[in-house]
Specification:
The protein is α/β, with parallel strands linked by helices and about 170 residues long. It has one domain: Rossmann fold. Helices cover about 45% and strands about 20% of the residues. It has a 5-stranded parallel beta sheet, sandwiched between helices. It is globular, with a radius of gyration of 17 Å. The structure holds adenosine-5'-diphosphate. Adenosine-5'-diphosphate binds next to helix 1, strand 4 and helix 5.
Length: about 170
């Protein structure tokens, strides 16, 4: 049987920490769906389309990877696609409580789907999309923490701030 996992997240934007989980996940699963699981009432920095676009650019033409988005429940999405696993990454202890709760509720919602965790690579344990945005919004360099395409898109988003910063 084909082993299919769904890797859900906001990916606003994708970071090298996410990519590390994707690459390592692909060693265990035949196929991986990267799912932008979004809340229609919340808007991020990047639109869903922009996030998908950046992921597509970074992943390239890998037939094992699909990129999708959904506003609904992860377990429903996974079931519909025939996935057996929800893949998640764990950074510091601070991720643990939330991830633990999510895994338990998801298991209650559907016992056939297991959440599988991979520990972050030590290089990425402090890399979060939020910190990346925070640093980039103030003109801090996040080179090396995100793929080049993301660096470029962040610079475009915050260009006005950078210009102001340079003048001021
Ligand atoms: P973030 O928490 O950075 O906003 P997401 O909501 O997109 O990111 O996260 C999706 C999944 O990827 C979560 O399981 C999260 O813990 C994991 N993840 C995010 N960043 C990293 C990282 N640097 N290393 C390992 N896992 C990560």
């Amino acid at each position: 049987m084909e082993k299919l996992a769904v890797y859900p997240g906001s990916f606003d934007p994708i970071t090298n920490g996410h990519l590390d989980i994707i690459r390592r996940g692909l060693r265990f699963f035949d196929r991986l769906i990267i799912l932008i699981a979004y809340n229609p009432n919340k808007s991020g920095l990047f639109s869903i389309e922009e996030r998908m676009d950046m992921i597509r650019t970074v992943i390239g033409a890998d037939p094992r990877v699909t990129i999708d988005s959904s506003p609904g429940l992860m377990v429903h999405y996974a079931k519909e696609k025939g996935a057996q696993v929800i893949l998640r990454g764990l950074r510091a202890l601070s991720d643990f409580e939330y991830e633990f709760q999510m895994a338990l509720i998801n298991r209650r919602l559907d016992r056939d789907i297991e959440t599988v965790f991979l520990m972050t690579g030590y290089k990425w344990f402090y890399t979060s999309s939020n910190l990346i945005k925070e640093a980039a919004s103030h003109g801090g360099s996040v080179r090396g923490l995100v793929p080049d395409i993301v660096l470029q898109r962040l610079e475009e988003k915050y260009e006005s701030q950078f210009t102001k910063g340079r003048k001021g």
